[in-house]
Amino acid sequence: MGFIPNALLIFKSQSKSGDYHDDMNKTNFMKWLQEKLIPNLPANSLVVMDNAPYHTVKLNKAPTLSSTKAEMQNWIINKGLSYLPTMVKAQLYEIIKEHKEAPIYEADQMLQAHGHRVARLPPYHCELNAIEFMWSLVKRRVASKNVGQETNNIVNLTEEAFQTITAEDWQKQCEHVRHIEDKLCERDRCVDAEIDRFIIELNNESDTESDSSYEDSSDSDYSSLAIHMDHAYSK
């Protein structure tokens, strides 16, 4: 357990925002995947991947509501489907949603072509990715030694920090993620139970209101009948 040997990629970001995601784009990621990761992966590996934009480049991207009307129409025609000339974009998009295939990701295709599988994390759940905790650990170890150091020495400090990461460090973070996952699953079960109880209680209230309405209606009918009979008797 640990980092894949010989797959480390370190580069100096050219972004002024301080966010390396501005530099780690689809081109750089696919190049790293092909030249660094895949050649060093053990056979039949399972690659866990999050949903960063450069991880999720689709080969079969379908038009969205932001697409032009012409793009939507061309997609429908290319699929051998038809549409009415009077249809607006919202109607065209309904056709697209009904017939678009499951997404095929470029990264997944490359990994699968080399005998590997890909498991994707749920969107917006970076806490389920053990690598996020490992990055944090590496950065803390770099920061602890980056006192009075020249900028050019950051690469050396980073490489040294990666070398200090042990299998025990990985094991600890993976267990932490497993604990988070268990808590989320338990929370989902609690939510399901509460929703079921809420629906049952609402149904019971509706039934009670219906019975009450029936009783009120019945009482009213009997009262009307009694009044009518009184009038009939008086006559």
Automatic annotation (TrEMBL):
A Pfam family annotated for this UniProt entry: DDE_3
InterPro entries registered for this protein in UniProt: RNaseH_sf, Tc1-like_DDE_dom
GO molecular function annotations of the record: nucleic acid binding
Domain Tc1-like transposase DDE per the UniProt entry, residue ranges: 20-144
Entry superkingdom: Eukaryota
Coiled coil: none
Name assigned to this protein: Tc1-like transposase DDE domain-containing protein
Organism annotation: Euphydryas editha
